[in-house]
Every structure is written in structure tokens, then in C-alpha cells.
From TrEMBL:
Gene Ontology molecular functions: metal ion binding; pyrophosphatase activity
Domain Nudix hydrolase span(s) in chain numbering: 18-162
Organism expressing this protein natively: Protea cynaroides
Family: Belongs to the Nudix hydrolase family.
Protein name stated in the entry: Nudix hydrolase domain-containing protein
UniProt keyword annotation of Magnesium present: yes
Pfam families in alphabetical order: NUDIX
Cofactors, names only: Mg(2+)
Keywords annotated in UniProt: Hydrolase, Magnesium, Metal-binding
Assigned GO CC terms: cytoplasm; nucleus
Length: 170
């Protein structure tokens, strides 16, 4: 399979107790603060979000976890396919349940999904990636990202999972 083609189709999807298993991440970077009034340089965190193909608001990369990959490999693949970034997968931020309006099928007629979400320290931002024609990416500070989240459960990942993890790990 070509590296520049996003995986499609549902035949390899993993399910557990009627839930489609999903993997995703919050891509992030740390950089020096623009505030030069401080003698010691403060680090600021930005997270990378992508636009939704099905409506307003921004998302974090995520998608189905498939039978031939680990959950970590799935999260890394989704970051590459949807956001065009590669990096170092950090901690699991938690598992989050949500309902997909667009992805209901015979194995999950309600569209129930369980997402394993990770933090991904971005090391490389690619100029070409599989979904670049349908997605734009945007670096945001956390408060702005919280306001921009299309889905409540993604806001929860950012506010509870990521922010708590980042502050403890800093």
C-alpha cells in the first residue's frame, strides 16, 4: 500500500461489546513564549487541530483501529493520514466513549465508539499527506482549542486528559 493513501473501508475494523474501537491523538509542540519581558523563557504548548469534513469546528486526528495494527500504530497512522504529522507517541490520555452519527453499521448500529486517545509530540510537519486536499490544520493554544472543538468528548480529552497529563509531566 502506498504511504500517501489513507486507509479506507470497514472490513478490518475492531469492535468490542458493540463499540467500534477508535485510536487518536492530540498532536502538540512546545515552544518559547513570545513574552520577552520575562528573563527566563517560558515554554508554551500548542495543539494541532484539523477541520472536520462534515461540518464546522475542529477535531483531533482519530479513526478506526484495525486488526493488523496495535492501538499505538493506529493513533500514529491517523495523525499522519489526517494531519500530516509524525512524532513521538507519549502517554495514553484515556478512553472516551462517543456516538458517531456518520459511522453506524451492522456491528455497531447505534454508532457507539470507544476512543483510545494519546498525546503525540510532533517532530515533523509534512508538506504532503494523504488527506491534505480535504483537511486544513491549525496550531492553537489550549484555551482556543477548547473553544474550537467540534465534539464535547474531544473537549473533555483536551481539558481533562491532556491538560492534566501535560501539567503533571511538565
Amino acid at each position: 500500500m502506498s504511504d500517501m493513501v489513507a486507509r479506507t473501508g470497514r472490513h478490518q475494523q475492531r469492535y468490542e461489546a458493540g463499540c467500534r474501537l477508535v485510536a487518536g491523538c492530540i498532536p502538540f509542540r512546545c515552544r518559547d513564549s513570545d513574552d520577552s519581558s520575562d528573563a527566563k523563557s517560558e515554554k508554551v504548548v500548542e495543539v494541532l487541530m484539523i477541520d472536520s469534513t462534515s461540518g464546522p469546528g475542529l477535531l483531533f486526528p482519530k479513526g478506526g483501529w484495525e486488526n493488523d495494527e496495535t492501538v499505538e500504530q493506529a493513533a500514529v497512522r491517523e495523525a499522519f493520514e489526517e494531519a500530516g504529522v509524525r512524532g513521538e507517541l507519549m502517554d495514553l490520555l484515556g478512553h472516551y466513549h462517543f456516538k458517531s452519527k456518520t459511522l453506524q453499521d451492522e456491528f455497531s448500529p447505534e454508532g457507539l465508539c470507544k476512543a483510545a486517545m494519546f498525546a503525540l509530540l510532533v517532530k515533523e510537519e509534512l508538506e504532503l499527506w494523504p488527506e491534505q486536499s480535504v483537511r486544513k490544520r491549525k496550531w492553537l493554544f489550549i484555551p482556543e482549542a477548547i473553544k474550537s472543538c467540534r465534539h464535547e468528548w474531544m473537549r473533555e480529552v483536551l481539558e481533562e486528559g491532556f491538560s492534566k497529563w501535560y501539567h503533571e509531566g511538565a
